[in-house]
Write a structure and sequence with these properties.
The complex is a heterodimer of chains A (about 240) and B (about 170).
Chain A: E1 2-8, H1 18-22, E2 35-41, E3 45-47, E4 80-84, H2 89-92, E5 102-105, E6 109-111, E7 115-120, E8 125-131, E9 134-148, E10 154-157, H3 164-167, E11 178-180, E12 185-200, E13 205-224
Parallel strand pairs in A: 1-4, 6-13
Antiparallel strand pairs in A: 1-2, 2-3, 5-7, 7-11, 8-9, 9-10, 9-12, 12-13
Chain B: H1 2-15, H2 36-59, H3 73-89, E1 92-95, E2 98-108, E3 111-119, E4 123-126, E5 141-151, E6 154-162
Classes of the chains: A mainly beta (about 240), B alpha+beta (about 170).
Chain lengths: ~240, ~170
């Protein structure tokens, strides 16, 4: 059976990091601008323009090909099948969901040592389109949420969180996505949603390797310090008292 | 009870903006750092910490900090893709990557760019059977163009791409 392998060819600078370099992956990239097609026959190595293993033109017709196997899937063509390499995150990035809403409560202001609650609302997202000149549906499912608090701490959670009222909890209570700042000041808190992607070309869902991180936005929070003092009358009793 | 009343007053006061304004910060460069030199120094320190974390993670899967703590955006996604490819091939990298050199490219608004020469000669790739499958054609010393973005008082790596420069 002849197998056609369709792949994308790299062009220009490609993504590269420490592990990718060590593993020789830095030249593996694609620009989506060109396609290389090669062909192999199992057990015979690469078919190379009719040139046989001895390097001479192979014009012999006396090799009888085995009968084509019965087709079992949509990609089968009788005497060959087509293998489409999996799309990468870069290929499906244009199908990605837009930024998800990011809210903090209390709105914009918090108290040293008391939890602020951060909430990102994101859900699964499906979008149709064309990829490799084929109709495709791409699905993004949130896998985790990253909250970066701006004070050097961050938290990755499985949930985007809920507001205190949705949770039926009092203000300043701790939640799965809350954070208590240790010092007063102004911080920029940001959140991102990490999505797993799948693509469907009409014959089932296939996983797209990797995780796509989409920023959910940022918010400035001001953290104030609250000092308490014991006085002998309430403000109602003595409106001119300290702190009233 | 009195305590609660005062606390409420203090919060209301702060929320209304009646607390004294913070003192103006000293004038900053376009990167938000005191100088471009400081911005480049911070970028180099961030990259060294990232490579150290990557080397440590190769030896101990539970090492901290997580190398991805230094990444965001495209760089984070690319790291995840590399991880997925290595897992798919059932490969793992052992040994230590070192930084051969830095070259300071650019420091402008909220962005710092360095050229980094990474040396992977101290690493190899093993498969599940612990066989050395290090690709013979890998670039042992590779120039990368690395971008950083300012995040609060530190920097995060946003992009890391191969560079045509010679190391």
């Amino acid at each position: 059976m002849l197998t056609l392998i369709v792949g994308l060819v790299l062009a220009g600078a490609s993504a590269c990091n420490s592990n990718a370099q060590a593993a020789g992956l830095c030249s593996i990239s694609n620009s989506g601008s060109s396609i290389e097609i090669g062909a192999t026959r199992p057990g015979e190595g690469r078919v190379d323009g009719g040139v046989g293993d001895n390097g001479e033109a192979d014009e012999s017709d006396d090799v009888v090909a085995p009968p084509p196997p019965a087709c079992t899937d949509d990609l089968c063509r009788g005497n060959y099948s087509v293998v489409v390499l999996r799309p990468t995150l870069a290929d499906v990035a244009s199908f990605a969901p837009t930024s998800a809403p990011f809210v903090d409560e209390p709105d914009g202001i918090g108290i040293v040592g008391m939890p602020m609650n951060f909430v990102v609302t994101a859900g699964a997202h499906e979008q149709g389109g064309t990829l490799f000149e084929l109709p495709v549906t791409v699905r993004f499912t949130p896998t985790s949420y990253l909250f970066v608090h701006g004070d050097g701490t961050s938290r990755e959670t499985a949930t985007g969180g809920q507001t205190w009222s949705q949770l039926g909890r009092a203000q300043f209570s701790a939640t799965e996505t809350s954070h208590a700042y240790a010092a007063s000041g102004t911080y920029t808190a940001t959140a991102s949603v990490r999505y797993a992607a799948e693509a469907n070309f009409g014959n089932g869902w296939m996983d797209v390797p990797g995780v796509l991180e989409i920023p959910a936005g940022s918010t400035m929070v001001r953290i104030v310090e609250v000092r308490t003092a014991l006085v002998d009358q309430t403000c109602a009793e003595n409106p001119a008292g300290p702190g009233c | 009870m009195t305590t609660i009343v005062i606390l409420a007053v203090a919060v209301a006061c702060a929320a209304a903006g009646c607390a004294p304004s913070p003192a103006p910060s000293p004038s900053l460069s376009s990167t938000g750092f005191a100088s471009d030199a400081e911005a480049f120094a911070a970028a180099e320190a961030t990259y060294r910490a990232y490579v150290d974390a990557t080397n440590a993670r190769r030896a101990d899967p539970n090492s901290v900090p997580d190398p991805t703590d230094f990444l965001t955006g495209e760089a984070f996604n690319d790291e995840a893709t590399t991880e997925a490819i290595l897992n798919d091939r059932e490969w793992r990298v052992v040994g230590e990557t070192t930084i051969a050199s830095f070259r300071q490219l650019r420091a402008d608004h909220d962005r710092v760019e360095l050229e980094v020469c990474l040396d992977s000669s101290g690493t190899m790739v093993l498969d599940l059977a612990e066989t050395d499958v290090t690709p013979s054609d890998r670039m042992t010393i590779q120039a990368l163009s690395v971008s950083f973005t300012r995040f609060h008082s530190s920097l995060l790596i946003t992009q890391s791409k191969t560079s045509a420069s010679q190391c």
